Queue: 4 jobs
Job 1
Amino acid sequence: MIFDKRSLLLFASNALLLHLMLLINSSITFVGFNLFILGPLFIIAPLYLRADQFFITSLLTGFWVDAALPTPFGVVTLLMLTIGSLILLIRLRFRAEKNFHPTLLAHIANFITGVTLFYLSTGANLTDFFIPFSTSFIELIISHLALLVIAPWFFNFQRSLFSIFETKTEPESLPFV
């Protein structure tokens, strides 16, 4: 198959999660912090799709996230392609059809992305890096607590979209175990 329908479904579900994250952040502005829930966007595409379809999906999703967030343009796209490529290389080690490994990978990707974006937002100046770090660290911890609930729901949502639209529900290459 030249074009896999799953890549379009993953892009649409990633856009939905990004929109929901921005909606939640706009509704909790009175609290003074933002939830940072970008980790699940990185995970299912490299676990389920072939390399070319993963690249297309990650590129589109990365550009969508870069356009929506006030970050330097291209950073999330580069992070998404880098983290996704690493997951793609070792995807035989993970059980994609369950939620444990994708949720763990989502936490790792969320932490790497959060620390990278925070480091770039401080202007890459290490003297000013630790002053606002306590507030951002609290935001990151609260985001990871929310991610414990959101990530399994999101991965099950993406798998249910695969079955609703009658596409292949298994990953391209299953683990040997």
Note: The chain has six helices and no strands.
Job 2
Amino acid sequence: MVSASFVYSFESISEHWGKYPDWVQHPTVGNYQGLKQIRFYYASNETLAFAVPSFKKIMEEQNVDASFYLRDHMFHAFPVYPVCRESREAYRDILAYLRR
């Protein structure tokens, strides 16, 4: 649930967006050229998951090797808080990637 105070703050913040590049407003309009590989981890029920199709599209357009991990019934930071099977799998995946 979004609080009323956030709605008012968001309106104030968004008034200034024209001063900044598009990618500051939303990362799906950024320039990712030159990025070799990226991994996205999302809980399917979180609000950020709506961006997966947009990120897939921009990564394909910019020839970035992107992997998307969308897990059902998880919480926002599940890959870095290994308290259940899905979290531990994502956590191990991240560690394996970093150790390469």
Note: Strands lie at 37-43, 65-71.
Job 3
Amino acid sequence: MDLTGTFTEEDLRLLQLLFEEKLKDGSKTVSILFKVKDMSQFKHTDLKALLRGEIWGFKHFNKIGRCAVVAHSDFIKCAVKAESKPLHLISNALEERYFDEEHLDEALRFVDPD
């Protein structure tokens, strides 16, 4: 799934569907790659959809495996570093890392080493 614009209710439904399909295929956890083009995307994001997505994510937190955040932002890089250790303590299956845009291939290998 590739979000090229803002996050909408339709995006949330697609994310949920893809997540559930992966679990039905026998995966115990689902790895995710978030690619953030720039912070301006958040200005027009559907906040209701984003909040519902966050709530849904917390409910399925123990089923998230590796999470790669790809961006070109010192703010996002600091946020990922700050949250990755506490999140891993809550769910030892979760491993979150930040990657600069030029390291997209490395991020893809991180979420799907096979």
Note: The mean pLDDT is 85.
Job 4
Amino acid sequence: MRVLFLGELFVLFLLLPVVFRTFIKKRNKVDTSVIFSLFAFIVLVLLTLAKGLSFSVLAVAIPCLFIFIFNLRSLGRCFQQLKTDVYTAGAIIVSLLGILLIAGAGYLIIRFYPVSSFKHLNSRECEAVEIIKKNQTGSFAEGFTQITSVKEPVTAVLYKFIPYSVYSNQQDENELPVVLFMPDVYTSVSENRLTIESITRKGNIVLCADFYAKDNAYLESFWNFRVFRSFVLQAEKLKNEAENITQDQDQLDRWRQIKTAELKVIAERAKEAGLFERIALIVADGNASLAAKDFCGTENLDIPVFELNENIPGYISGMGNFAVNEPAVYTFVAKAPSDGWIQSQQIALRAEKAKLVQIQNADAEESNSSVSSDSPEEEF
């Protein structure tokens, strides 16, 4: 999130020489300042590919694209080393509009920056979390395997979050309980990272994954591409809620089946790593909780499912850490806005309580079984 914030500010900063150059009195030279519009466009593309399209990126993209497109002719003249004597009235108007757009985007980014959350993340009390990431290729039908060539497409990304106490040799990894985290279709693992890391810091190993296989695509169109998928689904969800439109049930059922299939893959990887027997809890966002319950029922697993929904103050079901990822939009759409950091801490605490209840029940059952098995021997 901090990288995204700095990247967005950098794009806006690169646009400033372009919009202010028309007010410089000195003329009769090559218009070299316009080259910054190309640099800003390249940074924007790289930022979008790295972090994905989002509402905040869109706020920066509007002035960037506006200034870049309206200065294409000036870019051509710059590359041809043609001198500029006078800026036309149209160029000055475009610059003025560009200044307004940059100011508006800058205000939205800075004004709603989640200062409190990052203040806590930067504090000494906030322990680091190790993240192991594995890219895999394949499909749900044929299975997923480790990538062996750069030509193979990434269709699954598996994550393992490990607390600081493990890689600082303060605690044995084999002694820690395992938590499976399931994002809803509207978000990816990165958009739930604050919550996942908060759960990890409670002394848990957290397993989760993102899937991009074509045979279980969330969207059956070009928009299912990793860069656009979350943004398109979130925009559609917010639009439907604003217009009181109910989500198509067939679509919800299909997503439920997809999430169940995803959870099976994660469970298989947990078995391969020897972690399955230590799974103490499944944390699922929004409708993904239904898929988690389906999975536990089908596999006859006695694993509790902790659902993330509006019962957590300020939380928007299915949208992950929306309060931190999209603070400007969150302020306007949340029924009762609250701090994103506090939300993640509340989730971690409630998840820990749900996990402890399960562990206590398991210990009680184990003790009862041992008593019953010992009682005949005592009679003899």
Note: The CA atoms of residues 198 and 345 lie 6 Å apart.
